[in-house]
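Figure S4 source data
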Amino acid sequence: MSEGVRLEESWKAALAGEFASSYMAQLKDFLKAEKEAGKWIFPKGSEYFRALDLTPLDKVKVVILGQDPYHGDGQAHGLCFSVLPGVRIPPSLVNIYKEMESDLGTVPPRHGFLESWAKQGVLLLNSVLTVERGQAASHQGQGWEKFTDAVIRQVNELPHPVVFILWGSYAQKKAAFVDAKRHLVIKSPHPSPLSAHNGFFGSKPFSKANTFLRDHGMKEIDWRLPETV
C-alpha cells in the first residue's frame, strides 16, 4: 500500500487476489494523493493491517467488527475500539468495559489498549482501515469495505468455528453472509452511549464467546487486560 506497510504471511497469501485487484490499486492511489496534499492519515502506514498482523488467519477465534479508525491524535493504531496507552478511553470502550465487568466480574483497566486480545485470536477489524485526521468517515467508499469483506469471507471459510461479535446495525449488515450454522454470531446494539442501554448492556458477549470456544475444544479468551502495558 505504501512505504512501511507490512502484512502477516498467512493473510498476505489469502488476500493476494485482493492486493492484485484494480480497486486496491485505486485505493493506494487515493491514499498517496491524500498524503501528497498534506493530509494526516490515521493510523500510520505500518499499522494499517495491525489487526491482521497480530491475529494470523488460522489463529482467529473471535471477530469483533468496528467501522472506522478513531480520527483524533494518538488514538488509532489499527485495532477497532482500541487506543494507545496513555490515551483517554473512548466512550464506547468505557461501555465495553462496563459490560465485561457485569458479564465476567473483571476490574476495568485504566487504559484502552486491546492488543492482548488480538494476540489471543480476537480479530479486531474495522471495516475501513484509514481516516483523515479530524474527519470522521472520510475514507469510506474508497475500497476498504470491499477489502475487509474479503477478510471476513476468509474467516467464514476457516475449517474451525469462530465467534462473530457484531455490535450495531452496520456490523450486522456487513457480516450478514457469515454462516451462522457453523459459527456463533452474537448480535446486540452498539456500545456507543447513544445505544448501549438498548440491549448492549446485559448481552454477555464475552461469556457467550468463551462458552462456545470451550464447547468446541478451543482455549478460551482471557478478556482481562494487563494493568500495565
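Figure S5 source data
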Amino acid sequence: MLPPFIVLDPILEDWLREDIGRGDRSTSGLFPNGQSPLGKAVWIAKADGVIAGLPIAARVFQLLEQSVNFVAIAQDGKPVKSGDLIAEINGSFATLLMGERVALNLVMRLSGIASATAEYVKAISGTKTRLVDTRKTIPGMRLLEKYATFVGGAINHRYGLDDAVMLKDNHIAAAGGITEAVQRVRGNIPFTTSIEVETESINQVKEAMQLNLDVIMLDNMPLSMMSEAIALIRQHSPQSKTEASGNITLDTIAQVAELGVDYISTSAMVTRSHWLDISMRISSYSALR
C-alpha cells in the first residue's frame, strides 16, 4: 500500500528543502517577486519499464503549490513504452521547475525497482512461489522502495525489526542454538508475532521443524539440499511456510521456484535495479494553443 501522506510529507519536505536550499536561484532569477505565470509540463518515458510513484510525485508538487493539477496518464504497476506520455502537470512555472528534480528522481528510482521486480515475477509466473522483498533498502527510502516492489508484483517482507521475529545466523550463534533462540524469544514477544528461523543445513532444518515455526528459511542451500529440506518440512511440519534466500538472480530464481518453495526473498529488485529514464518538458499555455 502507498503509505499515508501524514507519514510521507515530512520525508518529501526534507528532500525538497535539501534541493531548494536557500532558494532556487535559477527560477527566482527568471520570475522575481513570486510573479510566475502558469504553465504546463509533460513527463515522457525514455525507456520501456513499469511505472511506480506517480501519486508521490503529485504530492511533491502539491507541497510546493496546493493548486497544482497533476494528471497521471500512466498507472502505477503498469508497463510503459519509450515515448509514452506518463503525466501532465499544470501549475506555476516556479512550482514546476522547483519540484521537477525531486519528483522525477523519485519516480525514476521507484519505476526502476518496479521494472526489475516485474522481471523476477515473470520468471516464476508458472509456479506457486511468491516473490518477497528484503530490508536491504536505502535508509530513508524503505517505505517507498517497498511500495515499488509491491507494485512490481512482489509481496512485502518485514518493514522493520518490529514487524516480526526473524532469527538469523548471528541471533542463533548469540543464543547458542536454534531451539534456545526460539524459546527465549517466545517468552518475550506478543503472541500474535510470527517467528521465522534461518537454516543453512539439513540438521538445522530438522531442529527447526520441531519448534512449530511460522516460516523456515532455507539460506544459501544447493538446490539438492533445498529440495530435501522442502520435502522434510512438508512431511513433518506442514504448518511452516518455506522461504528460499541467498544469491537469488534472474538466472537461478526459476530453478528455485520449481522446487516448490512458498516464498523466494531477494534484495536484487532493489540493489540491482536501474533507474527508468523519464524526461520532463515544459511550455507555456499560449504555446500550446
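The chain is about 45% helix and 20% strand. The radius of gyration is 23 Å.
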